[in-house]
Design goal:
about 270 residues; four-stranded mixed beta sheet; about 40% helix; globular
């Protein structure tokens, strides 16, 4: 029903503006599109979280904040205010905005998809978080290089892309576009730019999580207290666990056991 209605409404706008001269027709349609971009408001203890949703895909997460990843919310809710979270694979900023506005964390958000990054920065603006959140359109890897983000879709809010390879955790990507992206190891990024270092890392890129962690070994060992990683595949999960254990982290299997969710795995610095 919603798709048929959308087609009908867009057809009405095209028909209603068809008599205009070319520039005026294009300009009017663009203004209508801008005016119709929805905004979703999600109540929180820090006030309403505000999200622009210019695509159908970008609407899903804000509308399902409480039920989509309850283990992620439980972890974020346990973090002290004013500590620093790095949100790697921030997408449209759902957890970035929640952490900064509802919980008072300082957040650095990283999102390589240009279309999604535009939505992320708009959400930061809408929530008045320019002084608490910094967002960067770049990728992380185990080394620094220029590469391409293989994209399954260029639609803002989409996932299952991969930086520097042609497969995600779901298998081969049916690539519709290769976006050029600057990639850094986290170690190089920190040496070059001296950013605010993370107390906590949320990592969800659907592909090269282990390589990103390998490029961050020094920072993980010296600064990070907790790491949450989304893991879809058992072998990758075992490799990530072994790597982080070697750096002095231990997996906390109890924190979300009662929720029945195991996709996002939490590692805490041992001792």
């Amino acid at each position: 029903m919603s798709k048929r209605l959308s087609i009908a409404l867009s057809g009405f706008v095209r028909a209603a503006t068809s008599y205009l001269k070319p520039y005026r027709r294009v300009s009017t349609r663009a203004q209508v599109a801008e005016m119709l971009v929805p905004v979703v408001r999600v109540p929180s203890k820090g006030g309403d979280l505000v999200f622009t949703v210019p695509t159908q895909r970008s609407a899903y997460e804000p509308m399902h904040l409480q039920e989509n990843e309850p283990e992620t919310l439980r972890w974020l809710n346990s973090l002290p205010a004013n500590e620093v979270l790095w949100d790697i694979g921030a997408n449209n900023g759902l957890y970035t905005i929640y952490a900064a506005k509802a919980l008072g964390l300082r957040v650095l958000a990283f999102e390589p998809s240009a279309s999604t990054y535009a939505v992320l920065t708009r959400n930061i603006e809408l929530n008045g978080l320019g002084g608490r959140v910094d967002a960067y359109c770049l990728a992380f890897d185990d080394h620094s290089h220029l590469e391409h983000l293989r994209m399954a879709s260029t639609e803002a809010g989409h996932s299952m892309h991969a930086f520097g390879q042609d497969h995600s955790v779901k298998g081969a990507i049916q690539t519709v576009f290769r976006q050029a992206v600057t990639g850094f190891s986290i170690a190089d990024f920190c040496r070059l730019f001296n950013p605010t270092l993370p107390d906590h890392i949320k990592l969800d890129v659907d592909s090269i999580e282990l390589k990103i962690l390998q490029g961050a070994a020094e920072i993980l060992s010296a600064h990070v207290k907790t790491v949450m990683v989304e893991v879809e595949e058992d072998q990758i999960g075992r490799d990530i666990q072994a790597f982080l254990t070697g750096l002095g982290f231990a997996e906390d299997r109890a924190y979300a056991a009662d929720l029945g969710h195991t996709r996002n795995r939490l590692f805490r610095r041992a001792g």
